[in-house]
Design a protein that fits this description.
Layout lengths: L1 H20 L18 E2 L4 E5 L1 E5 L8 E4 L13 E11 L3 E7 L4 E3 L14 E2 L2 E5 L6 E2 L18 E7 L3 E10 L13 E2 L2 E5 L4
Length: 204
């Protein structure tokens, strides 16, 4: 009786083992996919200056206002104006271009006709605008550096500079503007304006 029980048990074990070896295996793969858009962020800047103030500072899509004390109130001769705008922790997450454009190519009187009936007066105020984005060094942007007394001084001369970047970049973007006061010719009275546009991504 014991042998029969033993034999029956052995047959059952072999049957279970054979069933396990014959089982099929199934595999499935799940693809996870999403997109991250091309994005650039230009944060609200901080401001440091000499002979300048900043009543309004904005970042993406806005217009900052910088008020310049262009000339000495006693002599009407140029001041050594300088300022920096630092757009801290700005970035583009893809290969892009950073550009800076001057609309007038110099500070020009808003009436476009600062008249001097006789004698020499500055009619167009030059400046130097530089930009820093990749690395520690500044790159030269619009540079109508020399102020002029010529009648043509009120003519606009737009200028744009673009700097390609081969990949994503995250850093402080800095704009530095200086006015050379070595020209001691007095300046014709008036309100002088210029527009500097900075753009990340598209070419100006």
């Amino acid at each position: 009786m014991k042998r029969i029980i033993f034999a029956a048990t052995s047959i059952a074990a072999l049957t279970i083992a054979g069933s396990a070896l014959a089982a099929s295996s199934q595999t499935t793969t799940t693809l996870m996919q999403g997109n991250v858009p091309d994005t650039c962020v230009l944060n609200t800047p901080t401001f440091a200056a000499l002979y300048a103030s900043s009543p309004a500072l904005v970042g993406n899509g806005g217009q900052s206002t910088i008020l310049l004390t262009l000339a000495d109130s006693t002599t009407a001769k140029l001041n050594g104006v300088s300022f920096e705008l630092t757009y801290a922790d700005s970035y583009c997450n893809y290969a892009h271009s950073v550009g800076i454009q001057a609309t007038n190519g110099g500070l020009i009187a808003s009436d476009n006709d600062p008249v001097a009936t006789s004698g020499a007066f500055i009619r167009r105020i030059g400046y130097d605008a530089d930009i820093k984005w990749m690395g520690p060094a500044f790159a030269q942007g619009p540079n109508p550096a020399h102020s002029t007394t010529l009648d043509s001084g009120d003519a606009t001369q737009a200028a744009a500079f673009n700097f390609p970047v081969t990949g994503a970049n995250r850093a402080d973007l800095v704009i530095r503007v200086t006015i050379d006061s070595s020209n001691t010719t007095p300046v014709v009275s008036g309100t002088y304006t210029e527009y500097l546009t900075v753009r990340m991504a598209a070419t100006l």
